[in-house]
Amino acid sequence: MKIARKPEDFGWVLNVGMSIISLMFVAMGLLGYMAFGDNIKGSVSLNLPDNYVYDGVKLCYAMAMLLTYFLQFYVPVQILLPSLLTKYQKRHGSCFEYSFRTVLVLLTAAVAASIPLLDDFIALIGAVASAGLALIFPPLIHIMTFWKNGLHPVALFKDLFIIFLGVTGFLLGTYTSVKTIVADFQNRNPHTIIANHTSNGTFAFHSFQEHPLV
């Protein structure tokens, strides 16, 4: 309620919240590498042994993904849905909206289940999309918005520095991800159509040698 009465407090609340989240992500990655070293897999849950304690951790992780999926999907749905509702909902009612949301969920599940080496592609998407969304576009929009109002030199330097970090991360991350994808595909058995990622929430398919299509 205090923040609602004083909207100007939102700045420090946002900074504190994002700082805590960033520290949690950094700590998760750091502890994973400290525990498993170079043998760490795309998801740290894949390194956990099979016993009751760690199976409970994996179950909690799966439940967290299930219960927060609608939050992750909120922005894409809000971007895609309004224009479609204007065109189709008058004829099909609310059934169209529910069907559209269901199709999007099933589509993402199908993509996750069918793409081989999913962790490598997730790294590529993160390098391409996350760098732009988190580090490049926000300071760029800030510069374009306040440029004519006399942007302070310190703020301009900060924005340019963040953009530089974002572009550097984008280039290095994209190069590393593409290089890893190419190397992993070259080292894979050509008859294997998908890696086993069942512990990471995707499905495992057998090879063409075990189950030929013809």
Structure description:
- This protein is mainly alpha-helical and 214 residues long.
- It has three domains: 1-40; 43-112, no CATH class; 117-187.
- It is built from seven helices and no strands.
- Mean pLDDT is 78; it is low at 190-214.
- It starts with a helix and ends in a 27-residue tail after the last helix.
- Helix 4 crosses helix 5 (94-114) and helix 6 runs antiparallel to helix 7.
- It is globular and about 60 Å long.
- It has helices at 2-5, 10-36, 52-72, 74-92, 94-114, 118-146, 153-187.
Please sum up the structure shown.
By secondary structure, the protein is an all-alpha fold. The chain has helices at 2-5, 10-36, 52-72, 74-92, 94-114, 118-146, 153-187.
What key phrases describe this protein's structure?
7 helices, 214 residues, mainly alpha, disordered C terminus, 73% helix
Helix content: over 70%
Distance between the termini: 65 Å
Number of helices: 7
The averaged pLDDT comes out at 78
Poorly predicted runs of 5 or more residues: 190-214
Total tally of structural domains: 3
Shape: globular
Structural class: mainly alpha
Topology:
Layout: H1 2-5, H2 10-36, H3 52-72, H4 74-92, H5 94-114, H6 118-146, H7 153-187
Helix pairs in contact: 4-5, 6-7
